[in-house]
């Protein structure tokens, strides 16, 4: 099969910054491999399903967990449902996007559907999350003891679901503008502006927590 | 001044790309544009450092979320197992589907040709629904052997089961009677039903042995695993 290859400047997964890799080769290998698995799954190959599950389930779980809040049981149920959909729909996968993008799009749909069923009492909204203090520290000690990194992480958790989602997709799941647009179902221009406003909100939360970054 | 103003939209555009540049997901062309801008603009470079901090902490935060337990995989592959077994058979036992089909057949739309028949259908539906509600709440004298006793959650020992498509209703009723089991919920995806095997939480080994014993009743049980 002849595949068109888009050249992308790429690095290893974000948490291991940042040795450049040969994206055209590595990306194509990974994509072909996932696609091959999907093809085998469409033929009822359970081993291929196990490989795909092993490869992607942790990231899908973390994505879902961040969307549904601190509810690991619900997140586990949802990822089972996500991969069961893959099992059922594999024959319909047209490879217009990466398999991981397809998985995250299914996961997002299921997570938001679950949230809609549970709202409003179980949703941790932005204001509530921002108001939660670490019970271990009193306010005076907080500023001294917490590093900037810890504050940043707390503020990341305090973002709205919409802002958390886009930041996770871009930074942790390494999704391009186009892929985020596919997963979230919004235009690419909106992806960029939403990311900008998510970061702006993050800066505001940081400032309120005593960390002024001088931006925006 | 004019040159500065002309550069402003370009700078804004570059700034919106910084997160993707840090993540390494830009096209080569865009990445080169960003690199050039960063080399010439100290303020932009400072903001890029902020982006890199955000990226690092987002990764850190996600990595601390842990991984799902084995339950997720068990649940998935039990459903796949059941579904695969179901595909092999042309006929599947789907009590929910059967009931829905029955109600649809009795719906006013189907029987709209006759006002009398429609009225009869509504009465029958009302009777069926009332019977279902009453049986779930223990308020009626009629109750199936398998439904209505067990709470959907709480203490007890449970299993997920898919019945043999060839099993008759009498076989399944006898199965529930003999093993004192109760239907808790279903059908789930793949024709799976959750049943309660005991009001007590049996030790893991004992539950596994019981499930294995029930699984030997091939004429009734196509698939069974312990469940929560």
Put the structure in a nutshell.
The complex is a heterodimer of chains A (216) and B (228). By secondary structure, chain A is an all-alpha fold.
Describe, in plain words, how this protein is organized in 3D:
The complex is a heterodimer of chains A (216) and B (228). Chain A has two domains: 1-124, Rna Polymerase Sigma Factor, Chain: A (Orthogonal Bundle), CATH 1.10.1740; 126-210, Arc Repressor Mutant, subunit A. Chain A contains ten helices and two strands; from the N terminus they run E-E-H-H-H-H-H-H-H-H-H-H. Helix content of chain A is 67%, strand content 2%. Chain A has helices at 23-42, 46-68, 72-89, 99-118, 126-131, 139-145, 148-157, 161-172, 177-184, 188-208, and strands at residues 10-11, 20-21. The termini of chain A are far apart. The model of chain A is unreliable at 1-29 and 121-136 (pLDDT under 50). Chain A has 216 residues and is mainly alpha-helical. Chain A has a two-stranded antiparallel ribbon. Chain B has 228 residues and is of the alpha+beta class. Chain B has three domains: 2-63, no CATH class; 70-91 and 145-227, Alpha-Beta Plaits (2-Layer Sandwich), CATH 3.30.70.80; 106-143. Chain B has eight helices and four strands. A four-stranded antiparallel β-sheet of chain B has the order 2-3-1-4, with helices on both faces. In chain B, helix 2 crosses helix 3 (42-63). Chain B is elongated. The chains are: A mainly alpha (216), B alpha+beta (228). Chains A and B meet through strand 1, helix 2, helix 3, helix 7 and helix 8 of A and helix 1, helix 3 and helix 4 of B.
Which whole number gives the mean pLDDT of chain A?
80
Helix content of chain B: 55-70%
Number of domains of chain A: 2
Share of residues in helices of chain A: 55-70%
Low-confidence stretches of chain A: 1-29, 121-136
């Amino acid at each position: 099969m002849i595949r068109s290859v888009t050249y992308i400047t790429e690095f290893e997964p974000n948490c291991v910054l940042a040795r450049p890799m040969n994206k055209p080769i590595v990306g194509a290998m990974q994509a072909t491999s996932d696609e091959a698995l999907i093809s085998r799954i469409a033929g009822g190959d359970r081993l291929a399903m196990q490989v795909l599950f092993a490869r992607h389930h942790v990231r899908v779980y973390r994505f879902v967990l961040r969307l549904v809040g601190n509810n690991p049981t619900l997140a586990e149920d949802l990822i089972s449902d996500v991969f069961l959909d893959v099992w059922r729909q594999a024959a319909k996968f047209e490879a217009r996007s990466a398999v991981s993008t397809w998985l995250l799009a299914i996961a997002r749909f299921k997570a938001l559907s679950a949230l809609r069923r549970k709202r409003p009492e179980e949703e941790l909204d932005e204001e509530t999350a921002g108001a939660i203090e670490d019970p271990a520290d009193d306010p005076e000690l907080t500023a001294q003891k917490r590093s900037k990194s810890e504050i940043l992480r707390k503020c990341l958790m305090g973002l709205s679901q919409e802002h958390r989602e886009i930041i996770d997709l871009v930074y942790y799941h390494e999704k391009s503008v186009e892929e985020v647009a596919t997963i979230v179902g919004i235009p690419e221009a909106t992806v960029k502006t939403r990311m900008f406003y998510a970061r702006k909100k993050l800066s505001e939360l940081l400032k309120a927590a005593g960390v002024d970054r001088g931006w925006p | 001044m004019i040159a500065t103003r002309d550069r402003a939209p370009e700078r804004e555009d570059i700034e919106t790309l910084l997160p993707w540049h840090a993540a390494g997901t830009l096209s080569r062309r865009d990445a080169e544009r960003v690199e050039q801008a960063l080399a010439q603009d100290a303020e932009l470079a400072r903001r890029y450092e902020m982006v890199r901090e955000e990226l690092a902490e987002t990764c850190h935060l996600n990595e601390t979320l842990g991984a799902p337990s084995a339950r997720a995989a068990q649940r998935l592959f039990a459903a796949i197992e059941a579904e695969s077994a179901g595909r092999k058979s042309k006929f599947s036992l789907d009590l929910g589907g059967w009931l829905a089909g029955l109600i649809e057949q009795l719906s006013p739309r189907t029987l709209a040709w006759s006002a009398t028949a429609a009225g009869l259908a509504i009465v029958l539906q009302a009777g069926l629904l009332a019977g279902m509600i009453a049986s779930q709440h223990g308020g009626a004298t009629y109750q199936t052997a398998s439904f209505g006793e067990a709470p959907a959650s709480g203490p007890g020992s449970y299993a997920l089961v898919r019945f043999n498509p060839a099993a008759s209703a009498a076989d399944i009723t006898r199965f529930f009677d003999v093993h004192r089991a109760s239907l808790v919920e279903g059908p789930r995806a793949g024709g799976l039903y959750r049943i309660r095997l005991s009001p007590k939480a049996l030790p893991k080994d004992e539950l596994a042995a019981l499930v294995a014993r029930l699984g030997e009743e091939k004429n009734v049980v196509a698939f069974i695993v312990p469940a929560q």
